[in-house]
C-alpha cells in the first residue's frame, strides 16, 4: 500500500484498539490534539485531514496544554486509552517537554509527535531550527530523550515497521507505561513507501497480567504470616490493574487495615471499616499513625515517592516491606521483597498462598476505624462554616458534598493536593480522582481536565486550582469551550503562591517573592487579575463567591451551566491564604546550613528548624 510516512502513521493509529477494564473494545487513540505549523501541517496535518471521520482531531492553543490534556485523558481512562499531541518544530515541540515529564513521572502513556527539521539538510538552517555547532544531527527534539520512555526520530518511512510495534508495547505495558516520542522530520513525513497491509490490520491491545515468581510469592506469604500489625498500601498500579476488589478481599479476609497513596486515592470507599485514610505528607494523620506502628507493609503498585513515605520517615525503622509491582524498578525500592507481577493477578495468587486462618492481631484491625474517625472529626471541624473567605478545606468539603459518586475531581499543585488527598471522602466503586503530584505541574489542572472530560463522560469533571496555576496555563479553557466539553473549574484566589510561602516561612525564611504583597513592583497599588472577566472572555460560564455559602450556590450553578451549555464553568472564589490541613508528617527539604543573619531570614527560627531536622 503506497502511503506517505504520515499517512501510514495515521492509518496505524486508527487500527489500534484497546480493551477497557470492563471488557469493552475502544480505540487505543481516541483523540489527537493538534496545533499545525511548518513541520507538521502538510505531512501529518494532511494525513489527519484525510481520515478526520475516523480519528477525532481537536484544536489546542498551547502545545504544553494539549499534551497535558493527553495526560489527563490517559489517567481518566485508567491507562486503557492514549491521547496524541502533535506540534510544529522548534518552540512548538519544546513546549511539550514539560508534559512529557508529567507523563513520565506519573507512569502515564501519551504519544507525542513533534515535527522536526529536514533529514536532507538541503534548506538548512530552516525557520525555528536550533543549530548545534558540533553535531548537525541534534535538534530541539533531543530534549525529549530525558523524559521519554521511548524515543525515535523517523528518518526513513520504512522505519515505522520496526518502531510502531515498540511504541505500542511501551504505551500498553504496565511496567513501562509512559510517554512515547516520535520525532517526524518534515521531509520524511511526505515521503512514500510501499507499506505491507499487515501493518494496518486491527489489533486489540489487552493489558498483560504477568504472574509473580512462585518462590517469591511463597516468601511474601511467609513474611505476612509473621505480621501482627500489617498494613496494606494501595497505589496507582492497583487502579490501572483494576485490582481494587482483589485488594479489598485480601484485607477483609485477614483483617488488614488499608491506606492509599496519592495515585491510589478513591480506590476504597471512605466508610469501609478497614480504611485508615491516605498516606503521607498530603494524607491523613490516621493512616500515618498506623504506618508508624505497622510491622509489615504490603505495598501494591506504588512508586513510594517522598510525599507518600514522608521522605521515608512514615514507617517504623524495622518495618518489613513486601512490594507487589508490575515494574521491578519500583518493586525493589528500600530493600523491599520484590514481587513482580500484575496487581490483580498477584493479589489473587497471594490470597491462595496465605493461610485462611491467619489474621492480624485482634486489637490491630479495628484501629483503622478508630483513627479514621478521629481524622474525620478533625476534617469536620476544618470544614465547619466560618465568617469571611473560606479555607481550602471548606472548598473541598463543599465540592465533596455536592458531587455525585460518578463525578471526577482533579488538582495538581500548591496547597490543594493536601486538602483533596487528605480530606476527600470517596463514595463510589471506581477511582474518581486525579491528583497530579508526581511532577506537581502548575497548569495541569485546566489542561488535564479537558482531556479527562473526554475520557470520563459518565460524570462531571471538577478541577480545583489556585490563582498561580490559573495564570500559569489557562488557554485550554478556551479549547474546551470551543470544542464543547463540559467541566467545572474552581479557581481559589489567595493572592499568590501561598503554599511555597508557607514552606519558605516555615523553614525560617522571611516572606519574599511569593505573595504579591512581598513581590517587587514600581506601583504603590499594583494591578490585580480579574479572573472572572478573563474566564468569561475565554468562553466560559462564570460564577463568583466570597464566602462559603456563596460558594455552595455558585458551585451548584456552575455544575448546571456546564452540563446544560456544554462548556466549562468557572467559579472564582477568594480563599484564606494561610489555613491548611496538616497530616503531621515530615518532608525533607534543603534547609540552608548557614545564614547571613541579614533581613531575609529569622535566624532564631532557622536554628530551631535545623535542630529539629537533626533530631
Automatic annotation (TrEMBL):
Task: Specify the Thiamine pyrophosphate enzyme N-terminal TPP-binding domain's residue ranges.
Answer: 40-128
The GO cellular component terms are: acetolactate synthase complex
Q: Which GO terms describe its biological process?
A: inositol catabolic process; isoleucine biosynthetic process; L-valine biosynthetic process
Entries under Pfam families matching the protein: TPP_enzyme_C, TPP_enzyme_M, TPP_enzyme_N
Q: What is this enzyme's catalytic activity, as reactions?
A: 2 pyruvate + H(+) = (2S)-2-acetolactate + CO2
Q: Which GO terms describe its molecular function?
A: acetolactate synthase activity; flavin adenine dinucleotide binding; hydrolase activity, acting on acid carbon-carbon bonds, in ketonic substances; magnesium ion binding; thiamine pyrophosphate binding
- Protein's name according to its UniProt entry: acetolactate synthase
Species the sequence originates in: Nocardia yunnanensis
Phylogenetic classification of the source organism: Bacteria, Bacillati, Actinomycetota, Actinomycetes, Mycobacteriales
This chain is encoded by the gene named iolD
